[in-house]
Amino acid sequence: MRVGVVYFPGSNCEQDAVYACRQVGLEAEYVWHKQSLIEGFGALILAGGFSYGDHLRCGAIACSSPIMPAVERFAADGGLVLGICNGFQILAEMDMIPGTLLANNGLKFRCQDTLMRVERNDSPFTNACEVGQVLRINMAHYEGNYFAEPETLQRLEANGQVVMRFGPAADESGGEFNPNGSIADIAAISNEAGNVMGLMPHPERAMQSALGSTDGRLVFESLRRAIDARDGDSQAFVALEGKPAGV
Amino acid sequence: MKGQVVVRLREEVLDPQGVTIGKALANLGYDNVASLRQGKIFDVELATDDPQEAERQLTAMAKQLLANPVIETFEVHVGSKV
After folding, report:
1. How far apart are CA A57 and CA A38, in angstroms?
2. What average pLDDT does the structure give for chain A?
């Protein structure tokens, strides 16, 4: 079953995401945001970048793209949806994931390796990991400071929706480390059903040891396993509009 | 008719931009600034003359797109005061 990588004007990680899927043996293809229905995908990835130039709020304008009602329906039917970085911001703006992402503490764009602890491995996005395993994955964002109201946070923790937390410092200085001020060190969070996850760091950039880490493979390997396990049980939508020229 | 939506960060949400702007004012000699929070104003011209209808539409716009209820509140103003 194929993975659809959804991208918008201003997205810039869709090629990396398609590459990462193919590296672990998944078929993947681009899905332009003007497409209003989607067909035959086992999972969707909302790619990172700066959709619509981050106007109004990061991810806010993307919510009005024709593809998003289809993504929402895909998720409501149980389809797997992974939002990476700006994709996470879009999922939060869509209310497909609770909470929102504020500017990093210190108001700095941070591009650096970060370490994340896997909190649970019964998720379709972490089933190839061990609980407590620490992944080294790069992050690059200005608005990744996860925020939710206290009652919401309590509910998320009680439901086990925190899938990964920022762990020890990546610069080997040791100790707890949170690179952006996220509440409860949250780096990845899922919806209540667990089939939709938002993740700030970029696993698609951690696929080759020459680039510093291969830990991102575990996320895509997990996705492949989850899709294999569900194969043949996927939604079938009808595609209406095609992709733009040059893609 | 003209309408306006004012969007503010909720009180419990830290506003680092507002803090920075407040500090900049202090640097310029405005040492009386006890606190400062920034927000957004949307001036909207609507193709209706009915203030109630305008208010209803602007409220819907604010809820759906202009404000993020997790971190922001909004006010809608319609008519001559705008």
Report:
1. 26
2. 91
Phi and psi based region of residue A100 (left: phi greater than 0; alpha: psi -120 to 50; beta: remaining): beta
State the catalytic residue, choosing from A85, A93, A129, A141.
A85
Residue A136 neighbours by CB under 8 Å, 6+ apart: A113, A114, A115, A170, A206, A212, A213, A215
Q: Is the pLDDT of residue A218 over 50?
A: yes
Q: In this predicted model, what pLDDT tens digit does every residue of B30-82 receive, in sequence order? A: 999 999 999 999 999 999 999 999 999 999 999 999 999 999 999 999 987 67
Say if strands B2-9 and A162-166 run parallel, antiparallel, or are unpaired.
Answer: unpaired
What's the pLDDT score for residue B20? 87
B70 CA to chain A: closest CA distance, Å?
6
Shortest alpha-carbon distance between residue A82 and chain B (Å): 21
pLDDT in tens, A134-176: 999 999 999 999 999 999 999 999 999 999 999 887 776 766 7
User: Could B70 and A100 be called an inter-chain contact, meaning their C-beta atoms sit closer than 8 Å?
Assistant: yes
Q: Phi and psi (nearest 5°) for A34?
A: -80, -15
CB-CB neighbors (< 8 A) of B66 in chain A: 56
Q: C-alpha angle with apex A9: A7 to A13, nearest 5 degrees?
A: 45
Closest CA to A33 of A2, A80, A68, A3: A68
- Residue of B8, B21, B71 to mutate for A, most A C-beta atoms under 10 A: B71
CA A241 – CA A81 distance, rounded (Å): 21
> Would you tell me how many other CB atoms lie within 10 Å of the CB of residue B44?
18
pLDDT at A66 over 90: yes
Decide: A209 and A23 in contact? Cβ < 8 Å.
no
The nearest CA of chain A is from the CA of B35 a distance in Å of 18
Give yes or no: A29 in active site: no
